[in-house]
Amino acid sequence: MTTIWFRRATRVACAVLPLLPIAATAQDADMPTYGSLGLATANMNRDIAPGDDFYSFMEGNWVDHTSIPADKTRIGYNYDLEDKVADDVRAIAENAVAHPDTPAAQRIAAVWSAWMDQKAIAARGVASLQPLVARIAAIKTRRALMALMAEPGFANPISISIEADVKEPTRYIVEADQGALGLPARDYYLETGEKYDAVRKAYLAYIAQVFTLAGVSEAETRAKAIMALETAIAKDDWAPERLRDPVVTYNPVAVAKLGAYAPGIAWDAMLNQLGLAKAKTVVVGEPSAVRAIGSHLARDPIELWKDYMVFRLISDLAPYLPAAFDEAHFSFYGKVLEGVSEQQPRWKRGVELLNRELGQEVGQIYLKTHWSADADAQMAEMLDDLKLAYAERIGQASWMDAPTRTAALAKLAVFEARVAGPKVPINYSDFHANAEDPLVNALESARFGLALRVKRYGGPVDRTVWGMNPQTVNAYYQPTTNQITFPAAELLPPFFDVNADPAVNYGAAGATIGHEMGHGFDDEGRQFDGQGRLKNWWTKATEVKFKTHADALVKQYNAIEALPGLHIKGALTLGENLADLGGLEAAYTAWKIYQKRHGEAQEIDGMTGDQRFFLAYAQSWQAKTRDEALRQQLLGDPHSPDTVRVNAVVRNVDAWYTAFDVKPDNKLYLPPEQRVRVW
User: Fold this and answer.
1) What is the pLDDT of residues 34-86, one digit of tens each?
2) 574-598 helix and 374-396 helix, angle to the nearest 10 degrees
3) Which among 589, 574, 581 is positioned nearest to 639, based on CA atoms?
4) Does residue 161 sit in the same domain as residue 50?
5) Is residue 300 part of a domain?
6) Which of 15, 433, 458, 547 has its CA 20 to 30 A from that of 265?
7) What DSSP line would sit under 281-348, residue for residue?
8) Which domain holds residue 576?
9) Are 179 and 324 within one domain?
10) In this structure, are 401 and 312 located in the same domain?
11) How far, in Å, CA of 53 to CA of 56, rounded?
12) 4 φ/ψ angles, rounded to the nearest 5 degrees
């Protein structure tokens, strides 16, 4: 299973900023957006000792006086930034409706108008859905069942995708993995306790409600059978921790032998339906889970699988159907699973829709208004400092021997950083937008996306492809190309501010860049070489020492109880935790490199440069999260909670102890010998 590592679960606060001379103060230039230095010091609770709770020291006053809006799962700077970008995209959409004078504007206007016309959706009812349900009803054989499962728009318990081959990343390969179920994590099916019982009860009721709304008889009986089927599949699904191992999830099988390797699955029917009939090899991600699904496909009644497909079809398309379907979907996935009491405004959901269906087309318009080419030059300085910092830290890593160090530096040397937006954006001329029906557009988007990937298959891997849009507030590392990617929407205050103090810039933006670079050397990324190949370039002795450090970090995070009775999964979050720690350490080293060039940081407003650096890092994780959303994150997301990504990280960084005079009697204090030092 090929993995892309993101900095945040839902979005990321990242920026790389134009930098002021170190001696300058806020009074010497225009004021930054937040505070006098780029820090919103009014958010601080100075009654809390930084060594006891560093996150609350920086954000405690904000936490005490901030409530999460009824339509949100989280609030904080990062989510405020998403709101700003949503306003910008809305303006693009409305301008396209008013001036549909280009093919791009016409497509954007059609998708937006179809979504926003709720009266037309209500009047149409389920007319657009009925032909799809009829196709499921017409199924007579298991082969026909599985062929339809593979068609875009229908649920498939086997996820078949086209990815770069991790053993030879210049070419594409077909991958087959365990598919997604109706609940967002397997533990929702398997864990015991009142919370999980309540979710399962609500999910069962939701399945029955979907059937009832669609006029399907025996709704409760069908719902119980589907719940039993999904629970049985979940028992054999691999845990999210295990999915992080790129070696055990790489199992290439010749197509001719797939029937014997994972029987019960009509592999040829699925591959033919996807346009992949010429594929010679399929990489199976989770063999035991895929075989178990094959067993269910072979023995469970066809009528049960048809009911499953009908339910998933209607549920997945519910937001595009009349209000009763949409509200039922939100009541379960929003209210029950995320604790949100109100649905987001329709226009904001329309922005998300545009970003999914025409994301890079919208992005090219976004870049013209919201991206400055001057930022490219400023990005270069910080990226160069981060590369120098990682080289310095790799060179000083006492646990690493010479051969492994040489290979690590060689990988670092060929890192590629991409900023703002793709040089070769997606061409949407083959996307046939419908100005009346958003459900038609959703299916067209699925068809278009598959056609795009199939067209690439058979040729060399295209390194110009972006996995995000320019207007995405996030960043990622791709191991098979050894690339780090920062969309333009990242480069906004408080994470990107031309007038902020450089210490703040390095603490916020620098740590984000360092985080993404760090993924190239975390427990997964370190298994890929500079050319993106899954290849062990470590000596055995150094590998053992690395694992000792990593295991210590797993132990630290396992001890953190994020919700009553629910601890962080240290093994699941290890890659992100290593990237957080290594990224902050590298950013601090880069900050020192910057000072060598520009002069020693001066004390400003009673804060040293190092204090401002670490406070900016804490500020970059400002957030409050609903318990329900946090539970969902803890069960299956590889990212630790935002507050933990401050306190659990800084307590391992020696420079933080010095900056804030942290002593053994402080709650976050770790003895030097217990601090994890990797990069």
Assistant:
1) 888 999 999 999 999 999 999 999 999 999 999 999 999 999 988 889 999 99
2) 110
3) 574
4) no
5) yes
6) 458
7) EEEES-HHHHHHHHHHHHHS-HHHHHHHHHHHHHHHHGGGS-HHHHHHHHIIIIIIHH--SSPPPHHH
8) 5-84+371-412+485-674
9) yes
10) no
11) 6
12) -110, 130
